[in-house]
Design goal:
The protein is α/β, with parallel strands linked by helices. The protein is built from twelve helices and 14 strands. The protein has a seven-stranded mixed sheet, sandwiched between helices. Strands 2-1-12-11 form a four-stranded antiparallel sheet, with helices on one face. It is globular.
Length: 370
């Protein structure tokens, strides 16, 4: 109980300090902040074409709504409305006690609703608790504990859950793509060393909302001895809303001296597999002995740029157009699994995960052809 009181007290103190900084921020003026916000989108936003947005019409429409007498509340509402039109889950605007995400179909979040927001669209098709209790038989390990108190998703959780499934199958679930480089490396090394002799592997990134590239680079590289292109990415050019820099060819490459080769691997995904987790999926799809099972992923691929307005409000937007290895855009489409299978809410409530059961059956059988 004392431990939780300590966390509550720390969160309260952080809130008081943040509120003081917010009240004493350099506010600028409405026109200055509006122009700053919209100019960043004009110069950096990568998805105008994908979203079929007529930028000039949008700018003209909203610029007429702003003048020197525009209040903070009115300006924030204008930014919210604009982001809603983009319908892009990599876009957001954040001021003290108010956070607006584009693309989630949600109203702006206040302090208390922010505490429970974790980027995932409610689908009820996956339960890590069920996996741990039924399929890992309550015999599992957790590693890389993270504490999020300053930004959503808030909370305390473990990034990795690992254990043995039936028939000598190794299992790893990843909740998010953490930026804790040393902890990531140690956890992945421990997993690969312990389960190296497994008959097959199930890598579960269902409900993984993305994050950084450290886990995708390290873990995917443990299963290949060959460099392969997995994505083609272009940075927005500020000259024109449809102009991009020369393409960059992103590759998967070995990340250790003794990779695990020729073992069948199943990658589990769902609608809440997003962003960096989708780029991990593209990496894994280049490995011949990998099959992807589950539901189509979220379709969010652009790298994020985070900035701050003169008045102190934070914002984010995607600045890259990233396509698959064949240079096909999957933005707003997602990655379609090799085998499409989905749990219902009733399945989960009844203690059954059809997706992982299919994966176990697949790895236990003799035929590994897609």
């Amino acid at each position: 109980m004392r431990k939780y009181l300590k966390y509550i007290l720390v969160a309260f103190l952080i809130s008081i300090i943040a509120f003081w900084f917010y009240l004493n921020r350099e506010k600028g003026n409405p026109i200055e902040n509006f122009n700053y916000f919209f100019n960043v989108f004009k110069e950096k936003y990568a998805n105008f074409e994908v979203k079929a947005i007529d930028w000039q019409d949008i700018y003209n429409y909203y610029s007429e709504k702003v003048n020197e007498r525009t209040t903070d509340e009115e300006l924030f509402n204008i930014f919210q409305e604009f982001l809603t039109k983009l319908n892009d889950k990599h876009c957001r605007i954040y001021r003290f006690n108010q956070l607006c995400f584009s693309g989630f179909g949600l109203p702006s979040l206040n302090y208390f609703t922010i505490l429970s927001f974790d980027y995932r669209v409610k689908t009820d098709d996956f339960s890590l608790k069920l996996i741990k209790k039924k399929y890992l038989n309550n015999s599992y390990e957790k590693s890389l504990r993270v504490y999020k108190l300053l930004e959503p998703p808030f909370g305390i959780r473990s990034i990795f859950t690992t254990g043995w499934l039936s028939d000598s199958i190794a299992y790893i679930h990843i909740t998010e793509m953490s930026n804790k480089r040393e902890g990531v490396h140690n956890s992945i090394s421990d997993f690969c060393n312990k389960y190296r002799n497994a008959k097959g592997f199930i890598i579960d990134i269902r409900d993984n909302f993305g994050g950084w590239a450290i886990i995708p680079e390290d873990l995917a590289g443990r299963f290949t001895n060959k460099e392969r292109i997995y994505a083609i990415s272009r940075l927005r050019n500020p000259d024109s809303i449809f102009s991009f820099e020369e393409p960059e060819y992103w590759t998967i490459k070995p990340s250790c001296e003794k990779p695990i080769l020729n073992k069948p691997i199943v990658l589990l995904v769902n609608k809440n597999t997003a962003s960096s987790a989708e780029l991990f999926t593209l990496r894994m799809k280049t490995i011949p002995n990998v099959i992807v099972i589950g539901n189509t992923t979220a379709g969010i691929f652009g790298d994020m740029y985070n900035g701050k307005l003169p008045n102190g409000w934070n914002f984010g937007l995607p600045v890259r157009k990233t396509n698959d290895q064949n240079d096909v855009s999957l933005e707003d489409i997602g990655i379609i699994p090799d085998i499409l299978i989905e749990n219902t809410k009733e399945d989960i409530n009844n203690g059954k995960d059809k997706v992982i059961e299919y994966a176990i059956k697949y790895l236990s059988s003799g035929d590994k052809n897609k």
